[in-house]
Amino acid sequence: MDARLLADLIDRSAELKSELVAFGQSARFDRWLTPLLLEAAGPERQLDETEAIRIIDHFLLRYRLPDGATVVDRFVAGRRGLAVPDREMVLGWRDPVEGIFEIRRKDGAAVVLLNLVDDLEYRAYSNVGRDAFRGVAKGGFLLTCLVPLLPADGVWLVSGAMEHYPRSYATEIARAAVQLAASQPELVFRNPEKVELGWQQMREDRAAFVELCGGDELVLSPAETENLINAHYRRRQEPTAAAHPGRGRGERLPGPDLPVFELPPDLAASDTVGVIYDEVDGLNFYADYGLLRSLFTDPGLAGRRKHQELLRTYLREESITPLPIRRLVAAHPETADTVFRKLLRQPGFSWAEHGEELLRRRKPWYYAQEPRPGVSVIGERLGELAAGGR
């Protein structure tokens, strides 16, 4: 793109972003933004400027209001006189790239960045000018968020907070990038090449799990669940250990430390945990799954409040996919209609006719997104950094 046109686009993005920030911080959004800031501030009510900027930027671009719209959507809808190119630019910000970036080089007013999470390169500018990258050196790292600068192809803008770390922080940065990739695999799969690799690795991991456990669905106590998953992870590490026979007993292999698996508090406090390693939905854990399964094995329990409330929770919670309900219905087709008729108070309910519609109505978010592997794939460069390379 012509340098003058690019500069004009960057200037215009600065104007629009300033207007968007003012719009998002107006009184009409206080009921949603203020609680986010207070939660981050904690009991001490202390919040540094960088974290505040990060929260506000995420709120503007990604936070879903009760009607499903973002602040960006509301901003564009309220600006009827906004030119079409401006509308396209702002709407493009709803799909930011969150990551941890290694600085490959500076190129004029831009920096070329490698996202250690998705293993893709980005050419990024700042709408406050090249001074934003003063002190940023090749080989260092940036923690930031990027948004596309439409209609320019392959050009990105720094959005919100930006933190810079020198190359001496490589070990800490690698650990943070690995944790980010593991906790948010969707960030990894912006890279199409990682999607198929992720499916392949998940198939291999699932096969190893089934071989160890004798199946892909178990009901265990919380303690048994933690022991099983840690045994699975250790077993998966054995081929790597065998590839380094010269290492002394007890020496660690290069790479990030293998964490000890622990259930989150809500699952750890449940009587039973359902462990399901599905071909599509991956490895998942479900609280009180044994109690829920008993409802389908004995439909006479469908009238009990405790069982009904648990099934309602499974239908209501966004953290729970349709998978466990589908599994239980498939395993107990003769009782599924009775269970849901009592729960929904619909004598004519038939799972074969109405079940999928019920799931789609209760969990539209699940059907609105393309399936992604449940296994994160670490790129070559991140692997080098995690193993102590530079």
Main sheet: strand order: 1-2-3-5-4
- Please give the largest β-sheet: 5 strands, mixed, barrel
Radius of gyration: 25 Å
The protein's oligomeric status is single chain
Question: What is the number of domains?
Answer: 3
Distinct helical segment count: 17
Helical amount: 40-55%
Please tell me the overall pLDDT: 89
Describe the structure.
The chain has 390 residues and is an alpha+beta fold. Strand 2 and strand 3 form a beta hairpin. The chain has 17 helices and eight strands. Mean pLDDT is 89; it is low at 241-256. Helix 2 packs antiparallel against helix 3 (49-61) and helix 6 (170-183) packs across helix 17 (380-386). The strands form two sheets. It has a five-stranded mixed barrel. Strands 6-7-8 form a three-stranded antiparallel sheet. The protein folds into three domains: 3-92, no CATH class; 97-185, Nucleic acid-binding proteins (OB fold (Dihydrolipoamide Acetyltransferase, E2P), Beta Barrel); 195-241 and 257-367, no CATH class.
How is this structure best summarized?
28% of the residues are buried.
Features:
five-stranded mixed β-barrel; three-stranded antiparallel beta sheet; alpha+beta; 390 residues
What is the fold's blueprint, element by element?
Layout: H1 3-24, H2 30-41, H3 49-61, H4 71-78, H5 84-92, E1 97-107, E2 110-115, E3 121-125, E4 141-148, E5 155-165, H6 170-183, H7 185-188, H8 192-213, E6 217-220, H9 222-242, H10 265-268, E7 273-278, E8 282-287, H11 289-297, H12 305-316, H13 323-331, H14 333-344, H15 351-362, H16 364-367, H17 380-386
Parallel strand pairs: 3-5
Antiparallel strand pairs: 1-2, 1-4, 2-3, 4-5, 6-7, 7-8
